[in-house]
Design goal:
heterodimer, A: alpha/beta, Rossmann fold, Alpha-Beta Plaits, 6-stranded mixed β-sheet, 4-stranded antiparallel β-sheet, 11 helices, about 35% helix, elongated, B: mainly alpha, Arc Repressor Mutant, subunit A, 2 domains, two-stranded antiparallel ribbon, 2 strands
């Protein structure tokens, strides 16, 4: 279990992460989402024990992470752009990781050779961005970490490789209860990958929840009422996050269970009534809108 | 054996629950038949194992499946209660279709004829078995 309590990290007096608490249970895949500059990378680096927070604590299985080599041997951090030593090849990097991570598995390194079509003797600097990304996944999985923290790992991978890597991660989660923390802007990917999500904005955590609960809790309703007066009654009975009028059809974003929402609307026997679960992208956009960050209707 | 619609808005775990229920009700999954393990299903469908675990837990809570420690999940023999809830769901569905049929000018006689048609088809199907 990873526990973060009241963590604040300052950069030149500016709060990159502002008193954030978060809990990630063993064996979960946690997706960290957020606006640009929300502090996702800072948060991940603090979790990985790379940064020391100004206030608050970060503990993995009850132990602090910062400057704790014993714990760090069980954590793998994958930065947003892969880093390899200059002039090194995959086999040289493998030798390095083997010397650092005691759980390194040489047999797995061989097995995964079948998955990643990369030349282990070639210099990594001569690989494309996507191939470098593949190489860092390969190396990370061989380190057999208990916690895998990844900053924007999906960028640059082709769809086949994405599926492959997803499958490998799922196996690790199912078999050895690997804990995965991943940040991304690709909400479709996160939606398929994660079971928990946290949404950040301006250094704060807006929501943190089980992904399915989050989706089951907010709904999009399209409705055409028989009488305009019915409209006013709805907002009194339900928690409406957002409301929009498109011709004679009203669009609502409503919090609550689908059955309860349906009951409230059906009383008025509307002409049209459609209740849809929200996609993660919609949840993200409405939550950001609530926090005062939304797309401005500017036409250039 | 399962096909999921990843582009659907419906959460994956709900899709899984509905699929299993449907297969149990249609007899594709027989009583006491073993369901694929979480691990197998996860790699077959490329779905988060925690999501599958959650769907299985929910199915177990609703009595559709049972699990044996260390052996896996199995289909429960069909119970009366499940039939009732299924009927209630279907009743709503029928009402909606019926409303549409009435609107289009179907008569009670025509709807009755449809009912008999299905009955006959079913009998013929049973005989050929």
């Amino acid at each position: 279990m990873i526990e973060m309590r009241g963590v604040t990290k300052l950069f030149q007096g500016e709060k990159a992460v502002d008193s954030i608490s978060l809990t990630v249970h063993k064996g979960t895949i946690y997706g960290l989402l957020g606006s640009n500059g929300a502090g996702k990378t800072t948060l991940l680096k603090t979790l990985a024990g790379i940064y020391s927070p100004e206030t608050g604590t970060v503990k993995v299985e009850g132990e602090p992470v910062f400057e704790n080599p014993g714990m760090k041997q069980r954590i793998m951090f994958m930065p947003d752009s892969p880093y390899f030593f200059p002039q090194s090849s995959i086999s040289q990097m493998a030798a390095f990781y083997r010397s650092i991570y005691p759980q390194w598995s040489q047999s797995r390194f061989k097995e995964l050779g079948a998955v990643f079509p990369l030349d282990t003797k070639r210099k990594l600097s001569r690989f494309s961005k996507g191939m470098q990304r593949q190489a860092s996944f390969w190396l990370a999985l061989c380190c057999m970490p208990d916690v895998l923290i990844m900053d924007e790992p999906i960028d640059g991978l082709d769809p086949v490789m994405r599926r492959q890597i997803k499958n490998l991660l799922f196996q690790e989660v199912a078999e050895r209860q690997l804990t995965v923390i991943i940040s991304s802007h690709n909400l479709r990917e996160i939606e398929d990958l994660c079971d928990h999500v946290g949404i950040m904005h301006a250094g704060k955590m807006l929501i943190e929840k089980d992904l399915d609960d989050l989706k089951a809790d907010t709904h999009k309703v399209q409705v055409a009422f028989r009488d305009e007066r019915h409209e006013a009654a709805i907002s009194a009975k339900l928690q409406v996050l957002h409301q929009e009028r498109r011709g004679s059809v009203n669009l609502y974003i409503v919090k609550g269970e689908s059955e309860r929402i349906a009951k409230v609307f059906e009383v008025y026997e509307p002409y049209v009534f459609d209740l849809l679960p929200l996609t993660l992208e919609e949840i993200f956009i409405y939550e950001m809108g609530d926090a005062g960050y939304d797309a401005q209707p500017i036409i250039l | 054996m399962f096909e999921l619609d990843v582009r659907s808005r419906k959460p994956i775990y709900e899709q899984l629950i509905d699929k299993v229920k449907e297969m149990v009700q249609h007899g594709i999954l027989q009583a006491d038949e073993q369901l694929p393990s979480v691990r197998t299903l996860s790699s077959q469908l490329t779905v988060n194992p925690n999501t599958i675990q959650k769907a299985y837990r929910e199915l177990e809570r609703e009595g559709y499946i049972y699990s044996l420690q260390g052996k896996g999940s199995f289909v429960s023999p069909l119970q009366q209660g499940q039939n009732e809830s299924q009927k209630a769901e279907l009743r709503n569905e029928l009402l909606r279709l019926m409303a549409e049929a009435v609107y289009l000018g179907f008569t009670a006689l025509e709807i009755g004829a449809l009912y008999r048609q299905v009955e006959e088809q079913r009998e013929r199907g049973n005989n050929s078995d």
